[in-house]
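Tokens for chain A. Residues wanted.
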């Protein structure tokens, strides 16, 4: 091995890390690292502007990426992507995160790192450096196995379309803002929505909205498809509070998944274990634990 460390180059490494994540995906039910769509979603979300991507750390073996440590949306929240066989790099990655990826509070470094149950060497080293598990901030991953047939229905007063049929950015902003319970709607930032739709694997025909009789978007489901590994990743999903408990969100999600099945997807993932998803076929496969460093 000839392991070398370097910092992330935003102009060159986005695609290289994307390909790295696709290459090291090897088990539908034991996902050790991020899926490539989550990496893509992170880089095409407006929050990416909240930190300097050059601080992302990369380890290479003979020029090939074997490990990446990085924030998501803000400093102090850190994830580890490690190729099989390179788990011993995790201690160096933790040291790098403590020294470079923290945020401050009360004159202390604050760092939340995330591990899943399959990253045993990483977990051992996280404990070694004094991180404390914080269940409150833990995440989950759930999987959906494709059925032979999808039973999708919608009340007559609503219409299901894709963004390939109609792509009204202000309407998308409104349903997502209200659907995520953000409160009073600010001025719409259409440029942010255009930026999110510029992701390389964003497909309008896979993003589903449900319209009411007035033409308002009242439910939205997005999805990304990894053609190499034949799975899809659901993100984001939101339903206007005035239209919940009508089955609209479920219908939007299932239609997204149905479309990716036609493209070859064998499974779909979502980064949560909310009862909403479990109610129509998703099953949790593991938790992603948060560990806090505050020194």
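Reply:
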């Amino acid at each position: 091995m000839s392991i070398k460390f370097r910092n992330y180059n935003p102009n060159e490494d986005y695609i290289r890390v994307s390909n790295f994540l696709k290459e090291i995906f090897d088990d539908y039910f034991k996902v050790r690292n991020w899926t490539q769509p989550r990496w893509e979603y992170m880089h095409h979300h407006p929050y990416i502007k909240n930190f300097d991507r050059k601080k992302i750390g990369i380890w290479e073996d003979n020029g090939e990426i074997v490990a990446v440590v990085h924030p998501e949306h803000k400093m102090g929240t850190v994830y580890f992507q490690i190729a099989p066989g390179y788990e011993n790099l995790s201690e160096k990655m933790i040291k790098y995160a403590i020294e470079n990826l923290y945020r401050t509070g009360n004159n202390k470094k604050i760092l939340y790192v995330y591990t899943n149950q399959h990253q045993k060497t990483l977990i051992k080293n996280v404990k070694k450096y004094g991180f404390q598990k914080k269940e409150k901030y833990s995440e989950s991953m759930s999987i959906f196995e494709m059925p032979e047939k999808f039973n999708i229905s919608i009340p007559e007063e609503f219409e299901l379309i894709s963004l390939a049929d109609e792509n009204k950015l202000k309407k998308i902003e409104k349903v997502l803002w209200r659907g995520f319970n953000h409160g009073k709607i600010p001025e719409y930032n259409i440029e942010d929505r255009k930026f999110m739709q510029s992701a390389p694997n964003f497909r309008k025909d896979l993003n589903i909205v449900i319209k009411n009789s007035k033409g308002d978007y009242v439910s939205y489901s997005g999805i990304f498809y990894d053609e190499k590994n034949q799975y899809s990743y659901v993100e984001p999903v939101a339903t206007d509070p005035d239209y919940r408990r009508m089955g609209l969100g479920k219908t939007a999600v299932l239609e997204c998944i149905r479309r990716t099945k036609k493209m070859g997807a064998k499974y779909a993932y979502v980064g949560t274990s909310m009862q909403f998803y479990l109610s129509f076929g998703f099953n949790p496969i593991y938790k992603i634990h948060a560990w806090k460093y505050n020194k």
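The chain has eight helices and 14 strands. The mean pLDDT is 96.
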